[in-house]
Design a protein that fits this description.
By secondary structure, this protein is of the alpha+beta class. The strands form 2 sheets. Strands 1, 2, 3, 4, 5, 6 and 7 form a 7-stranded antiparallel sheet that branches. It has a 6-stranded mixed sheet with strand order 8-10-11-9-12-13, sandwiched between helices. Strand 5 and strand 6 form a beta hairpin. Helix 1 runs antiparallel to helix 2, helix 2 packs antiparallel against helix 4 and helix 7 packs across helix 8. It has 2 domains: about 150 residues, 2-Layer Sandwich (Beta-Lactamase); about 170 residues, Reverse transcriptase/Diguanylate cyclase domain (Alpha-Beta Plaits), CATH 3.30.70. About 25% of the residues are buried.
Length: about 350
């Protein structure tokens, strides 16, 4: 028992990404506690609105088979789960048939960010100690992974995690693409929704550093990151690529939705007060993220669109696909296109 337990702890801490850590945690909890189901929930709080996502779940079927459930947002989280997330306290209830549901909070930097939910026939004191220990190990290792994935100044995701995160997003798109059962006609009758990648660059940032110093420049970067974090959805991926350059990856949406979202964000940046700088603007280049695209190609396309935006006056939003279309020779039927 002790050897198996130590082996599971070693296996748990060998992982190098959050997804692997979560699946190892659920497998370990089931192995040593013998629950009927175990799930990980995460808080997606934004703008004082609490949203909850079930990141991963493991359920025992017929006492032998296992069934994994993937990421899913909850429309109606249970009151017990919400209470656990809000209070950071363990919540446990038991039904008349002896089935116990238990929610154990997960914290990061002393802030509740999620919960582990257990369904069992009731946990004894030894099982409760084990469960709490596994959750503590998960919290500690999650803190290490979180720090390794984040830019030290802004707290956004760093350049080193970009390839992995975008690859995971594209893989999910491929799975979704293969599961699509709608007819071609149905797809044509609907507006296209795809994922998007945007490259963002602060206009004339070198002048900020030259005129006011790098301390002021760092403050500008930090404030901009805070604006991004509060404006965009918790599910959007926000990266600092280095210097004054950022990369944003969005969930599937129409081109009209992304255009409106980014235009409103640019206006918010214009209206934000930065130290010493009277007015700060950003330029943005956007490219589609298709289910079979290579990350490097998507990044290059967004970079070309960003270059176009900066070469044509800055403080502009440019879509790569529109830019390419506008560069093609026009026929008599073409009426031109407005890029911005």
């Amino acid at each position: 028992m002790q050897e198996e337990l130590l082996h599971s702890v070693v296996k748990l801490t060998k992982t190098r990404d959050v997804d692997s850590l979560e699946s190892s945690l659920l497998s370990t909890i089931h192995e040593f506690i013998g629950c009927q189901a175990v799930s990980i929930y995460k808080s997606l709080s934004a703008n004082d609105v609490l949203e909850v996502e079930c990141c991963l779940g493991l359920e025992v079927i017929d006492g032998k088979r296992f069934q994994w459930s993937q990421s899913e947002k909850l429309d109606n989280p249970s009151p017990e789960l919400l209470s656990c997330l809000n209070s950071a306290c363990i919540i446990a209830i038991q039904s008349n048939d002896g089935v116990e549901k238990r929610w154990v909070p997960i914290t990061l930097s002393d802030k509740p960010i999620g919960a582990i939910a257990i369904v069992s026939k009731g946990l004894g004191s030894a099982e409760q100690v084990l469960l709490n220990a596994f959750c503590c190990i998960y919290e500690n290792y999650l803190t290490i992974l979180h720090e390794n994935e984040r830019d030290k100044l802004t707290g956004l995701l760093n350049r080193q995690t970009f390839d992995k995160k975008l690859k995971q997003l594209i893989e999910k798109q491929v799975v979704k693409h293969h599961k699509t059962t709608k007819s071609k006609k149905d797809r044509q009758n609907q507006k296209e929704t795809v994922s998007w990648l945007a490259m963002l660059d602060i206009d004339h940032f070198k002048q900020v550093n030259d005129n006011y110093g790098h301390v002021c420049g760092d403050e500008v970067l930090l404030i901009l990151a805070q604006v991004m974090h509060s404006y965009f959805r918790p599910t959007d991926l926000l990266f600092r690529f280095g210097g004054e350059e950022f990369v944003l990856v969005f969930e599937p949406a129409t081109v009209e939705e992304i255009e409106a979202l980014l235009n409103q964000f640019m206006e918010q940046v214009r209206n934000t007060k930065f130290p010493f700088v009277k007015k700060l603007t950003v330029s943005i280049g956007v490219a589609k993220v298709g289910p079979y695209d290579f990350p490097i190609h998507v990044l290059e396309n967004a970079d070309k669109a960003l270059y176009f935006a900066k070469e044509n006056g800055r403080d502009k939003l440019c879509f790569y696909e529109q830019m390419v279309k506008a560069d093609k020779p026009q026929t008599e039927d073409d009426s031109g296109i407005d890029l911005f």
